[in-house]
Write a structure and sequence with these properties.
Alpha-Beta Plaits; 12 strands; 4-stranded antiparallel sheet; binds (3R)-3-hydroxy-3-methyl-5-(phosphonooxy)pentanoic acid
Amino acid sequence: MKSRASAPGKVILFGEHFVVYGVKAVLCAINKRVYVTAEKTDQKKIVIKSDIGELTLEPDKTVSEIKSPLRPFYYLADKMIKNQDTGIKVIIESDIPPGVGLGSSSACCIAGASAISRLFKDTSREEVLKLGVEAEKTIFEDTSGADCAVCTYGGIIEYEKDKFQKIKTQPDFHLVIANSEIKRTTESVVAKVRRHKERDEGKFSALCDKESRLVSDALRLINENRVQELGEKVAENQEYLRDINVSNDILEEMIKIGQSTSFGAKITGAGGGGCIFALADESNLGNTIKQFRDKNYDCFSVKIDFKGLDTF
Ligand code: PMV
């Protein structure tokens, strides 16, 4: 018996980092996906295969022993075969570049949680989300859970410390994603921001207030599909990210290229490297992509994925 699931990646439109300290963030699922196929096997082993490596292990290991980035899949498979006389084979295929802020690990955790759990029982989206966040915590303990929520439900969500709500409108914009190809971990950048905050709590708190106001304005513009003005909010959010030191010269160069043709550009996700996005519509999409490609940046465009987790 085989079970298959897929989940989309994501972009954080507004509020990364500040969300860790209680500010609302706005995320959208994108039309790039991870596909996970899970299968019961006769041999009581956990076998995981993906483009980034392979793992074959006995069950019942403590998760901290697993040094591989495939650890969340081991966690999920091991949890599901407790007291069962079966092994599991998991195959992961992905369209989402890993480690660059596009939600590849959350999409893996959600598609993995769904495909693996459905070998044993029917699971609701709510159950899959809970399981997926548990799995993600095996790699980043302090995750806000926002990424997993948006890739489970799709569309655009507003997210605030364990609470989220899906936005009902379906705005029609394109996001041009450009990849700095600088690797970093979310954990290290979040720790850096924490140190920055501790150096001047008052200043950080004032910035959180500004970010909160910006997010409220942005939500109103999203609901009214006012893409051009939304771009101004994107650019303003980038200033706040710069203020907390998660930008750098290369990212700023990319932001400048994006700003020159699109409605607004900013980092998405932890920063320090990874990706930026530029907000566009049909009128400036082609030229925005051209500007990045002319300067040899790896770049592609995405639209919002309204489906979220899919099972088949
Ligand atoms: O780079 P990503 O996609 O892992 O995004 C991290 C977002 C943060 O706000 C920096 C951390 C979090 O858990 O919300």
